[in-house]
Each structure stands twice: as structure tokens, then as C-alpha cells.
Amino acid sequence: MQAPWRDRRGKFLPFKAAVLASLFVPGVLYALWFTAGDLGGRPVMETIHGTGLWAIRLLMISLAITPMARALEWPGLLLVRRNVGVAAACYAVAHLCLYIVDQNFKLLTVISEIALRFYLTIGFAALLVLLALAITSTDAWVKKLGRNWKRLHKLAYPVGAVALLHFYIQSKLNVSEPVFVSGLFVWLMAWRTVPEAWRRKQGIAFTAALYSGLAILSGLTTAAMEFGWYGAATKVNPWRVLYANESIDRGLRPAHWVFVVTASLVVVFVARKLSRTRQPMRRVAA
User: Fold this and answer.
1) pLDDT at 281 over 60
2) SS3 of 86, please?
């Protein structure tokens, strides 16, 4: 089996090793906070929330790697996609295991809770799919499944949506972070609907227009999702929430942050295009 810090030829890759090491950081921090008593009166519950949050974050990062690699013309970034995806599954497993600990290892209680509580049911379903994707992420499984491998791993997109719904319900009234992450997820899904020929166009003006459009779409969709959630799932007046997006007097709303992040990507992608077009041409000998 190939070591996760090497490429397929067995060469050690410092970047891949650094990313792998960074994936352990959230878990190590929570372990240190837990032992130091820095997680409040319910440390196990805080760790459950933390591992679940990092499972979703890493899943979103894994889905963002392909768009970033294409837009930045950095194929080496794809080498860490598998590691990040497997790490997301590992944090999701830790999330479930800690929930079992919190229930004093009463497995029948855990099973009944998963069966009866909708947000736990969909969270468990997402975990099972994530585990299947992690297990089949090896080169051996790629060869074994053939064309079906890509079909299976496309389930990462609906799993992302289900995991976010689980995040919304678990967050109850304050859904600012789920809304923000959902806005970025919208950008990722919108990018995948863009025709391949458009993504490959080299013009700087076209690149700026394309990604600016995605930024505007993501920001507006985020505001609409926040409005819809508060209107359908809470007693909070959704119009007040929507009006809050029209001003930054009380700070930036999730929709504003989504636009800031995705608009920043426009600058990064255009700068990358400019840097490549300004590279000195090699002189050809007469």
C-alpha cells in the first residue's frame, strides 16, 4: 500500500506530508483541551460537536480541491484530495464514537436514537457513505471498480448536502456557520455545472467574469437559504433576517462572508492568469 506522504512512484512529497500532518491538528487540539479541562462542563459533548464540525469542514475542503487545482493550474494539489477525504471520514467516525461514549456505551439507546431522530438518521447515513468512499479510495479499489468507481465517488456531493442538513438541525437557532458553509458548497456545485470548455478558456476577462458571476450567485443563494431556513424551521421572522443582509451596520452576515470569500477567489485566479501570461518566453535559437 502506498504511504500517504508519497506519490505513486514512491517519491517523498513534502507538501503532501505537511498536509497529512495538518489533518491531525484539530484532533490533537481537542485531546489537549479535553485533558486540560478547557472544554467546559460537558467536554465530551463539546468534542462531539468539534469532531463533527471538522468532518464537514474537511469534506468541503476535499470537494474544493478539484476546482482550486483547475483554476490555479496546480495539478499537484490533487495529490492531497484523497488524504483530506479520508480524514473527513475519520473525524465523522470519531464523532459517532464520542456520541456512544456520551450515551455511556448503551448501544441500544444509540441505535434507537439514530432510528427515531431524523437529524441523527441522516447523519448516520452520511457517515456510512463517507466510510464507503474512504475504504474504496485506494488505487486497488480504483482498478477493481473500474468505471463504477467514479459513479460511487460522485456520492460525495449529495453526502455533502445531507451532512449540511444534519449541521443545520443540530445547530438549532443559530445557523450562521451552516449557512456560510452551505454558501461555499453552492459555489462548488455551481462550478461543476459550468461547461468544461468555459473552465478551460484562457482569457483573463472571461475568467474574471465567470468567477465573479459565481460569487454573486453564491452570495444571493446564501441569503435565500438563510431566509428559507428561518422561515420554515424557526419562529424567527425571516424578513428581518433578509433585511439584515442589506446592510453591514451590525456586522457581516453569512451571505456577505460567502461573497467576500468567493470574490477573493476571483482576484486570486486572475492574478494566477496574469502571472502565467507575463512569464518570459523562451528564446528560440536562430
Assistant:
1) no
2) helix
CA distance 166 to 147: 30
Residue 153, all three cell numbers? 465517488
d(CA 219, CA 190): 12
Nearest CA-CA partner of 96 in 157, 47, 36:
47
Lowest-confidence segment of 31-45, 84-98, 102-116, 194-208 by average pLDDT: 194-208
Domain that residue 33 falls in: 1-171
pLDDT digits (tens, 9 = 90+) for 256-269: 999 999 999 999 99
Question: What's the pLDDT tens digit per position in 78-94?
Answer: 999 999 999 999 999 99
Tell me which of 151, 171, 191 is where a domain ends: 171
Q: Is 29 found in the same domain as 161?
A: yes
Same structural domain, 202 and 87: no
Looking at 171, 189, 214, the residue that finishes a domain is: 171
Closest among 27, 96, 56, 84 to 179, alpha carbons compared = 56
